[in-house]
């Protein structure tokens, strides 16, 4: 499931046409047929359909869809929203084929005429503009899009809702609001952004015969889905012992937030960590030890209830360390973060208040010889970058990649569509999870899951993606089986980790 920009998609088309030898007309036929199949499943047998067609290749797809539907016996009305001379190339080829098959095309831009047509149909197919949109829609197309959006018809967009930019970073646009979008060959960036994702309605990718190797070669982003999890989650051998699955240290907690480190610790153990030590203050240890008897504890020096740096911090024995959860924002707790950045001899995960402290120590990231991973939510990420949250969310792929490459850090940018980025710029989107996760404590649970995954034998990037998958799927299964968005608690997400492993079992050796 690749994710592309418009330019990457054009490169993919061009390579497929010129190097692989599949002609544009053929790709258009495949695209139109693939979308038609989905449309037919959706609309049932006899519904009249109106197809709106624009000047480019997206309109060409529309002519193929209209022909397939006509051939299947549907009543199809085709409204071309640009004059005849604008239809050229492959789109003109398919327009002619449609007409040869008995189809009729009306060139219409008049408001009253279009309103009348739209009122009479239950399904509108939007093949006006695809990834070739530039700027805000011009008239009369903008007005036609408003009519479509105001109608009661179910709107099915081809490739992308017309007017919506494919790429991140575009904030001004007018777009069709689709109920369904059948996306051609690869997902476009805008399907994952806060301000644009909803325009797609429900969406699904339809393959059109572009070889996988071409998609892989031309894209740096993909979606992390069940098949990725199944392929990469490491197996557990029957001869394994607790030491085979990693020793981890979690540092955090303060008198006011004792629960956070308890949840991270429990989540790490539940995810499969061999041994977990919770490094925290004596008072927090006394508060949480009974809730997680499987863990070990490290008593750290404290001042006014907060961890401070001191000789008690032994960090040489661990395969991975996490810091930040419930740590507090005092300057001397920040010194502990700096100490770890300087000396942790293993992968280091920084979360929550640890990210707050990281802002003053960003330069230390570059000196680390072992990987560093941060798990910010958008507010923390914007703080690190010194930009507004809305600027970050309008181009999250760009901004996270910039930070990851500049400081050599792995980033998990949390959200509905969590973006995982490697220091080399590889990116994945993990989209499981539900609104029940919008609650205190769920981030602490993710930290524990990520730490546990970091200690299992798998590529670090895969480990981070798998951790997000486990966290989101746990919440999803819990809501499916016994909870609602309202009552799902962070601790339920920990309990639900078992369901994820049972639903998507690891291979056994
Ligand atoms: N072989 C392939 O490549 C394949 C491509 N495929 C399909 O092609 C699609 C891409 O096709 P594309 O490149 O022709 O662009 P497309 O999205 O149809 O739009 C161009 C038109 O939009 C117009 N327009 C732009 N901005 C505007 C504005 N603000 N306001 C108003 N009008 C505006 C622009 O007009 P112009 O500015 O030129 O006057 C031009 O006429 C892609 O999404 C997929 O569906 C599949 O069939 C598989 C094979
Ligand atoms: K479209």
UniProtKB/TrEMBL annotation:
Reactions catalysed, as given in the entry: (6S)-NADHX + ADP = AMP + phosphate + NADH + H(+); (6S)-NADPHX + ADP = AMP + phosphate + NADPH + H(+); (6R)-NADPHX = (6S)-NADPHX; (6R)-NADHX = (6S)-NADHX
Binding of K(+), residues: 58, 126, 162
Record: residues binding AMP: 414-418, 443
Region forming the signal peptide: none
Pfam families cross-referenced by the UniProt entry: Carb_kinase, YjeF_N
EC annotation from Swiss-Prot or TrEMBL: 4.2.1.136, 5.1.99.6
Example of a GO biological process term: nicotinamide nucleotide metabolic process
Domain annotation YjeF C-terminal: ranges: 225-504
UniProt GO MF annotations: ADP-dependent NAD(P)H-hydrate dehydratase activity; ATP binding; metal ion binding; NAD(P)HX epimerase activity
Keyword terms, alphabetized: ATP-binding, Isomerase, Lyase, Metal-binding, Multifunctional enzyme, NAD, NADP, Nucleotide-binding, Potassium
PROSITE patterns: YJEF_C_2 (PS01050), YJEF_C_3 (PS51383), YJEF_N (PS51385)
Swiss-Prot/TrEMBL cofactor(s): Mg(2+); K(+)
Cofactor note: Binds 1 potassium ion per subunit.
Quaternary organization: Homotetramer.
Function: Catalyzes the epimerization of the S- and R-forms of NAD(P)HX, a damaged form of NAD(P)H that is a result of enzymatic or heat-dependent hydration. This is a prerequisite for the S-specific NAD(P)H-hydrate dehydratase to allow the repair of both epimers of NAD(P)HX.
PANTHER family: ATP-DEPENDENT (S)-NAD(P)H-HYDRATE DEHYDRATASE, ATP-DEPENDENT (S)-NAD(P)H-HYDRATE DEHYDRATASE FAMILY MEMBER
Recorded family membership: Belongs to the NnrD/CARKD family.
Classification via HAMAP family: NADHX_dehydratase, NADHX_epimerase
UniProt-recorded name of the protein: Bifunctional NAD(P)H-hydrate repair enzyme
